[in-house]
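hey so u asked for the seq, here:
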Amino acid sequence: QVELVESGGGLVQAGGSLRLSCAASERTFSSSNVGWFRQAPGKEREFVAAIHWTGDSTSYADSVEGRFALSRDIAKNTVYLQMNSLKPEDTAVYYCAATRYWGGASITTRTTLYYTWGQGTQVTVSS
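ran it, structure tokens below
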């Protein structure tokens, strides 16, 4: 079972940037697609972004399109979520997850298709 560990969260002012990392325990992670989700207090977990295992294809929620960017370092078994122009509404716990599936939004946004999840990292954006 692949274990995922997120890091890089913290407190930042609106307009600032953070880079989240999702590190995997096994090399089999390199053939998995990776999604990022977030959950704010009192709200459902929502899709943020996803990257194909090749790194050649990405998908973003409308709310973060143009501000967030995904990349992956296969050699390090790590996926990065660069978050720029952060807004207070981006405040949430951010989770990365791995899936064997890839397709349109109906696939990448579906939490039930991800087979393993990290423990989450808190991102707080102050106004």
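The chain has one helix and eleven strands. The helical segments are 105-108.
lmk if thats what u needed
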